Amino acid sequence: MELEKSKYEGIFIINQKGRRNLVTKNLTPGKSFFDEKLYKINNEEFREFNPTHSKLGAAIIKRISLIPIKQSDKILYLGASHGYTPSFVSDIVGKNGVVFCLDFAPRVVRDLLGICEERENMIPMLADAKKPETYKTRITEVDVIYQDIAQKNQVEILLKNLQFLKPKGYAMIAIKSRSIDVTRHPQRIYQEVEDKLKDKLKIIDKKELDPLQKAHCFFVCQKK
Ligand SMILES: C[S@@+](CC[C@H](N)C(=O)[O-])C[C@H]1O[C@@H](n2cnc3c(N)ncnc32)[C@H](O)[C@@H]1O
Q1: I want to staple 79 with a disulfide (CB 3.0 to 4.6 A). Which of 149, 177, 192, 200 is the partner?
Q2: Is the distance from the beta carbon of residue 85 to the nearest atom of ligand 1 less than 6 Å?
Q3: Cα angle for residues 138, 75, 213 (degrees, 5° grid)
Q4: How far is 174 from 160, CA to CA, in rounded Å?
Q5: Of 33, 49, 65, which one is at a domain's C-terminal end?
Q6: Is the Cβ atom of 6 under 6 angstroms away from ligand 1?
Q7: Do 88 and 10 lie in a common domain?
């Protein structure tokens, strides 16, 4: 079993019997929260990151040019759900970073609470991303906003939350074309999304995530 660095900070590849799996260094050794496989290499533990369960993972497999998440970063994660991808973001930012994990569905936030109890850098927040005024006193300025919410007005929600992003900070957004309009061609929708984002953000890269994540496009942008 061999461990390789990837071009992205905090993301590694484990090569085992010809299979290459994405992994992150486990911030909570001995614990896995989603039945993900744990690997021990040189006294360190790594967690398998499944790109079919995560748009971030899929964007990595698609070789997006930049994943701007670094050690010690503060991240606002919109649409944290049960915490699968947020837990890997938590591994990347490490113990000196923070992931504000926001979701508006009480049922998933209940699951999230369990992980946040074990991982001190994950802060659970039950709130509606459409209403940043309801949580603006509970968060600080962040280095990166990551958004994965399947809503018709996904872009407008991200734009409303840019108030929390530091100058030159990064925004990552997974666009689900079917949530915007199921009848229209996904590429048309992605182009319209790009045009709207361009007003406030510089587009660094975008990748369609099919077939790992059907009818999704992932954008990495930087605040102007
Ligand atoms: C596709 S899931 C996110 C999966 C997660 N990002 C992951 O990779 O593990 C989308 C989540 O967005 C949440 N969501 C949708 N609209 C929202 C809103 N306006 N505010 C907060 N959360 C929202 C849903 O409750 C759902 O949990």
Answers
A1: 149
A2: yes
A3: 125
A4: 16
A5: 49
A6: no
A7: no
Centre of ligand 1 from the C-alpha of residue 94, in Å: 23
The four Cα atoms 119, 125, 126, 131 give a dihedral, to 10 degrees, of: -160
Same domain for 162 and 147, yes or no, is yes
For each of the chain's 224 residues, which pLDDT tens digit applies? Answer: 899 999 999 999 999 888 899 999 999 999 999 999 999 998 999 999 999 999 999 999 999 999 999 999 999 999 999 999 999 999 999 999 999 999 999 999 999 999 999 999 999 999 999 999 999 999 999 999 999 998 899 999 999 999 999 999 999 999 999 888 888 999 999 999 999 999 999 999 999 999 999 999 999 999 99
Residue 140 sits in a domain whose CATH number is 3.40.50.150
C-alpha torsion sign, points 155, 149, 57, 23: positive
pTM: 0.97
- For the CA of 86, the closest atom of ligand 1 is 9
Does 79 contact ligand 1 (Cβ within 6 A)? Answer: yes
Ligand 1 contact, 81 CB (< 6 A)? yes
Between the CA of 202 and the centroid of ligand 1 the distance, in Å, is 24
Mutate to test the pocket of ligand 1, among 88, 149, 155, 160 (most ligand atoms within 8 A of CB): 149
Domain of 162, in residue numbers:
56-223
